[in-house]
Amino acid sequence: VQLQASGGGLVQPGSSLRLSCAASGFTLDYNAIGWFRQAPGKEREAVSCINWIDTSTYADSVKGRFTISRDNAKNTVYLQMNNLQPEDTAVYYCAARGVANSCTLSGMTYWGKGTQVTVSS
Hints:
Blueprint (H helix, E strand, L loop, with lengths): L1 E5 L2 E3 L5 E8 L8 E6 L6 E6 L5 E3 L7 E6 L4 E6 L8 E7 L13 E2 L3 E5 L2
Parallel strand pairs: 2-11
Antiparallel strand pairs: 1-3, 3-8, 4-5, 4-9, 5-6, 7-8, 9-10, 9-11
């Protein structure tokens, strides 16, 4: 069972990126999938979650700018990030926890390696 996050990079403020979380060894549908991030010197925090019935939630800091989605055919969950700001700079991780209504930092079962997002002018 593996999760692989990708799509990070170095972008300017106001730019967009789309992160991908691809699964192998299990199917993502009916799993709650979360995106989390950790900035230097800070604790890991929840960014967005899509639960087992595809209800999505967002941290207040990213509402209106980030969108989470699931493509079952590709066994991948995406995080579309628009209007990126320097405070979005962090390592982004995806994680899965099975059939669940929400994503919590301590409740996730599988974690992928992170992908670095750097927003700087």
